[in-house]
Amino acid sequence: MLNTIFTLLTSFTITGKGPVTVFSSGLYGFMPPKTYSFFVEELTKDYSVLTTRNFSPMLKKNVERYCNQMEIKEFIFVSHSSFDHTILESKFCKEAFLIDPVSLPEFPLRNRRIYTDIPTTIIKCKYSYNNHKTNPFILPGFSTHIEGDDIKLFDLEAGHIDILDNFWANLGRRFRIYSMYDEDETLQRSKFRKYVVNIIKSS
After folding, report:
1. What is the pLDDT of residues 71-106, one digit of tens each?
2. How far apart are CA 103 and CA 81, in angstroms?
3. What is the DSSP letter of 11?
4. pLDDT tens for residues 151-193?
5. Which parts of the chain fold into alpha helices (H)?
C-alpha cells in the first residue's frame, strides 16, 4: 500500500516487464518521454522502463529515493543527449548506455571528462558531430568524454534527432538539425531504434 502511494506521488512512471531500466530523455529528462514512444516501446518488450513525467528532471537523488522506496536493487541506465552524469556513480546503477552524451563544458569550453567504474556503452550518432550540410548539432566543448576500464563505442549512421519519434524528428529537421534522412533517404529510423535496443539487450 505504501509503495503504491509513493509511486503515485513521485514524478516517475514504470512500464514493461524485466530488469529495471532508467531512461533519461533529453534535456536532463525534461524532454517528454512521449517524444521517444517508439524507442521506449521497444525497450519495454524486455525491460521495466522508468521514465519521468510532468517535465521532471531525471536526477540521481530522486532515482535513488525511488529505488529505496520500491526496493529496487539495481538498474540499467539509458540516456539520450544531456543527462545527470552523477547517476553513473549511483550504487544502484550497474551498467549504462549513453546515446550522444552531452554536458555543459568545463572551463574553458572543454569537453567534460567523466570517469566511471561501471560498464558503459557510448552510442554516437555520427551526423551529430560531422555532416556536409549544416554545422554540427553537438558543438565542440559540449560532448561528454567518458573514461573507464569497460567502455564500448558504437558510431552509427544517424543524427541526434533520429532516436525520436518521426513527428518530432521531422520537426527537428525544420530547424536544420541534421538527420539520417538528409544523408540517405533510404535509411529507416525504425531500424536504427531497434538496433540501439539490440545493443542494450546484447550486453
Report:
1. 999 999 999 999 999 999 999 999 999 999 998 878
2. 8
3. S
4. 999 999 999 999 999 999 999 999 999 999 999 889 999 999 9
5. 2-9, 37-44, 60-70, 166-174, 180-183, 189-201
